[in-house]
Amino acid sequence: MAENGAIVPISVESRLPNTSRLLIFVEKNPKPLAARIHFPPGTDGFVSLRLKMNETSPILVIAESEGQFFGTQRIVRVMIGGCG
């Protein structure tokens, strides 16, 4: 749960071997693609960032590892929208 949608801290960690990138989507935002992170070979698939969220919405994370894509999502509740 986030009190203010203007600053929603999230952390994402991929334990997949050789994670090359993460895509983070906020479904109900005006522009759903919130972040695209590329990882150089040999680095850990971890990122911590702050997102803006318009309203309560699922956050979808897609990880690419060795040419395959894997995803998960969580619903984040927002008390006050941050995109308006």
Q: Looking at CATH, which topology would you report?
A: Immunoglobulin-like
| CATH architecture level-2 label | Sandwich
What letter string, H or E per element, gives the SSE order? Answer: EEEEEEEE
Gap between N and C termini: 19 Å
**Unreliably modeled segments:** none
Q: Outline, from the CA principal axes? A: elongated
Give the spatial strand order of the biggest sheet: 4-3-6-7
> What structural class is derived from the secondary structure elements?
mainly beta
Largest sheet: 4 strands, antiparallel
Q: Explain this structure to me?
A:
With 84 residues, the protein is mainly beta. It has a single domain (2-57, 72-80), classed as SoxY domain (Immunoglobulin-like). Helix content is 0%, strand content 62%. It has no helices and eight strands. Strand 3 (19-26) and strand 4 form a beta hairpin. It is elongated. The two termini are 19 Å apart. It comes from Methylocaldum szegediense. InterPro entries: SoxY (IPR032711), SoxY_sf (IPR038162).
